[in-house]
């Protein structure tokens, strides 16, 4: 990647590789060394946005969830959105009732393994798949029952389409959670959906505000403000506190982009937005893409042969492991099999596919998605409405799952391409990286937590000082500029012969005449006298 290459170049390269035309719904996400998520800005240099050293780790994600995913023009687009929502379901972002959860899981099962076959699918086969953060035996039996009796004959494309139609009706469809706290100190998750702004607390949606009711968003430090104008001219301001200023800025930028994408009619209506009421202070940001209406109009004009789709179900899935661990490509020639595997690993698994669905079990929330034992399943089987935990806690899902170590990924790819069986344990190990690396990272984190050090603290203080100095300089420049403009206007009014209606009205006011004769004329005579004195002094010397 060239040092001056823009984000748009990298994104177009990736979409060309995936043969994707309806690309405006997607984006590239990365995590900086401070574990803060960012969307890659397409108008800026890729290298300048990265604070880490190369090679850079990025994730291909759905950035703007389609308002109606079933209305997408091409099957390849629907498939990628399907993979993202499937990942959301596994990470506990897509909350639903048990009946809806069973139907969604059955659609995934039908899309991955096809019709139920008693010879291939023994009793309890659905338990070998991990669809949600928690399972119960009752739920697994319901999934298998729907898969056997209701979905027979559906192709993968049909199952994925039905999955999207069902997921779109759920309240948490399109939720990308941002952890925050309200003014009372209660934990909350803020999110932007195709339909508006959402606040989730304790497994419930406590606020839903449509996009046309949101009048303004701004932030100051860790504080995020949402200005809402509802019916009867009722205006309210919602205030939330992010963990860090960087997280708050990321939340604000996501809100600006989502509002522009879903609310505006044309991209020409997009304006640069400031995070502060004072134009010389704060951050400025501008959404650079097309809006939803333009994307749908452009999609309707697509006329080409549907591209071939290599579904990730052909390779043993990590988040939803296949029943047989060996590759299912025995009918494909070995050279073609390798090409198919490479296409899947690069175009699907390393982007939206289930290969990155399994959360890394870290020291902070490593057991957040641990599958409970049979006793735990029996207890949770009595729950009726909730699949996720008691409290809405996406945990690892607030960070994109790290990409597997390069060497381990190559080893896994070569083993699959050569037809060797690949165990689930190896796949999990490749997700988490080597134990030594994990221990070193954990030790480094503890050391940084115990010893903040003068380097990190000094850098933070220096950054704050630099921001303050820049704000002061900006204020001075703006003040000088305004004074200069006023001086030019004054000279034009008093010295020029322009006789326009605007100038004539000003000159005829009593205030201007008083200013002109009592202040300006004496000042001009004094200034001219001083200039003549200086000139004569220079001539004499």
UniProtKB/TrEMBL annotation:
Regions crossing the membrane: 472-494
Region (Disordered): 352-376
Name of a matching Pfam family: FERM_N
Predominant localisation class: other
Residue stretches making up the FERM domain: 1-266
Localization in the cell: Cell junction, Adherens junction
UniProt-listed GO biological process terms: actomyosin structure organization
InterPro entries cross-referenced by the UniProt entry: Band_41_domain, FA, FERM/acyl-CoA-bd_prot_sf, FERM_2, FERM_central, FERM_CS, FERM_domain, FERM_N
One cellular component (GO) term of this entry: adherens junction
CDD domains: FERM_B-lobe, FERM_C_FRMD3_FRMD5, FERM_F1_FRMD3
UniProt-listed SUPFAM superfamilies: PH domain-like, Second domain of FERM, Ubiquitin-like
Task performed by this protein: May be involved in regulation of cell migration. May regulate cell-matrix interactions via its interaction with ITGB5 and modifying ITGB5 cytoplasmic tail interactions such as with FERMT2 and TLN1. May regulate ROCK1 kinase activity possibly involved in regulation of actin stress fiber formation.
PANTHER family xrefs: 4.1 G PROTEIN, FERM DOMAIN-CONTAINING PROTEIN 5
Protein name per the record: FERM domain-containing protein 5
């Amino acid at each position: 990647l060239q040092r001056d290459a823009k984000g748009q170049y990298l994104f177009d390269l990736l979409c060309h590789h995936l043969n994707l035309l309806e690309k405006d719904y997607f984006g590239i996400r990365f995590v900086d060394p401070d574990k803060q998520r960012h969307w890659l800005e397409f108008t800026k240099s890729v290298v300048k946005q990265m604070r880490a050293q190369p090679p850079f780790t990025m994730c291909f994600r759905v950035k703007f969830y389609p308002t109606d995913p079933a209305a997408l023009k091409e099957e390849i687009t629907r498939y990628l959105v399907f993979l993202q929502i499937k990942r959301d379901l596994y990470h506990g972002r897509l909350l639903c009732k048990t009946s809806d959860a069973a139907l969604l899981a059955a659609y995934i099962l039908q899309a991955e393994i096809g019709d139920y076959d008693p010879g291939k699918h023994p009793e309890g086969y659905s338990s070998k798949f991990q669809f949600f953060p928690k399972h119960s035996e009752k739920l697994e039996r319901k999934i298998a029952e729907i898969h056997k009796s209701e979905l027979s004959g559906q192709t993968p494309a049909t199952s994925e389409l039905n999955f999207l139609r069902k997921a779109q009706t759920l309240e948490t469809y399109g939720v990308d959670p941002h952890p925050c706290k309200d003014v009372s100190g209660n934990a909350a998750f803020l999110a932007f959906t195709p339909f508006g702004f959402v606040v989730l607390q304790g497994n419930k949606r406590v606020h839903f505000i449509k996009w046309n009711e949101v009048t303004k968003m701004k932030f100051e430090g860790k504080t995020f403000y949402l200005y809402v104008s509802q019916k009867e001219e009722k205006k309210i301001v919602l205030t939330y506190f992010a963990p860090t200023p960087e997280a708050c800025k990321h939340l604000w930028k996501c809100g600006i982009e989502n509002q522009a994408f879903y609310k505006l009619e044309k991209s020409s209506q997009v304006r640069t937005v400031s995070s502060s009421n004072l134009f010389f202070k704060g951050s400025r940001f501008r959404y650079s893409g097309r809006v939803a209406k333009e994307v749908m109009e452009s999609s309707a004009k697509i006329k080409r042969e549907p591209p071939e789709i290599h579904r990730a179900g052909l390779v043993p899935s990590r988040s939803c492991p296949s029943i047989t661990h060996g590759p299912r490509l025995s009918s494909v020639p070995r050279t073609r099999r390798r090409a198919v595997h490479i296409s899947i690993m690069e175009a699907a698994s390393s982007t939206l596919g289930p290969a990155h669905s399994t959360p890394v079990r870290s020291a902070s929330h490593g057991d957040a998605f641990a599958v409970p034992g049979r006793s735990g399943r029996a207890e949770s089987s009595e729950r009726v409405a909730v699949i996720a935990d008691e409290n809405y806690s996406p945990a690892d899902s607030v960070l994109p799952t790290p990409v597997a170590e390069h060497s381990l990924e190559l080893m896994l790819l070569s083993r699959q391409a050569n037809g060797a069986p690949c165990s689930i344990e190896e796949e999990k190990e490749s997700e988490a990286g080597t134990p030594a690396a994990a221990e070193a990272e954990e030790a480094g984190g503890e050391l940084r937590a115990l010893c903040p050090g003068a380097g990190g603290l000094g850098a933070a203080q220096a950054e704050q000082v630099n921001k303050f100095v820049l704000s002061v300089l900006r204020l001075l420049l703006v003040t000088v500029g305004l004074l200069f403009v006023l001086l030019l206007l004054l000279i034009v009014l008093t010295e020029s012969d322009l006789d326009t209606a605007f100038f004539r009205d000003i000159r005829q006011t009593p205030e201007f005449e008083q200013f002109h004769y009592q202040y300006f004329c004496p000042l001009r005579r004094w200034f001219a006298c001083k200039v003549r004195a200086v000139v004569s002094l220079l001539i004499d010397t």
